């Protein structure tokens, strides 16, 4: 299989602009769960850039559990991400949820995110494979390692070899945390596959106070990057406020991460 170490022994380095994911550097992709307003995304972008993030995350199309919950600003949100990119130099990662929007989202973003709920949306996987954008493939909430690797295989078989895995926690019997972050997937994937592995400690825990420790654990486990939710006012966030770091908490975490990276 294309995704396997047998097919390719050396690590895949995903090149995006001046950045390389899967190489020596650890990339931090930070930002709000949802793009909510111009001031919210610009304030967050400037702060995470200042603290050392290289990518801005933010959802413009949101896959929500309830149909009555905020569904995203759609193209207006993509335009705000593009504006933040322009102002800060951060590159952008945002989710595409529908085959009909792939071209539109690809036009605005640097990385296309496939959300956990769509990991086995094979028609969406085939569609994003036709773009020339790197893909961040989140693990399905109850997907096995094998199923996850086969989802990546769909994208590679479709002609797009720039795929990154993103561990974001799985559903277990534990309900204190929103999901159980399965950090064993980092070395497991790295032994079986040549693709980079990113960890999302925000969805992986559902609790902001657990995020710094799990971020450091992910990096110690060998992750190539972190995807983390940050919001200027988490208590006012329209989605995932409980797992979002404040700008100050994010900056503090980045300092701890720098110390850890030195030690590794
Ligand atoms: C997100 O990144 O905001 C998101 C919806 O993540 P997941 O697909 O992992 O739930
Ligand atoms: Mn979220």
TrEMBL record:
GO BP annotations, alphabetical order: aromatic amino acid family biosynthetic process
Q: What class of enzyme is it?
A: transferase
Enzyme Commission (EC) number: 2.5.1.54
The record's GO molecular-function terms, alphabetically, read: 3-deoxy-7-phosphoheptulonate synthase activity; aldehyde-lyase activity
Keyword Transferase present in the record's keywords: the answer is yes
Q: Which UniProt keywords apply?
A: Transferase
Boundaries of each DAHP synthetase I/KDSA domain copy? 18-259
Protein's name in the database: 3-deoxy-D-arabinoheptulosonate-7-phosphate synthase
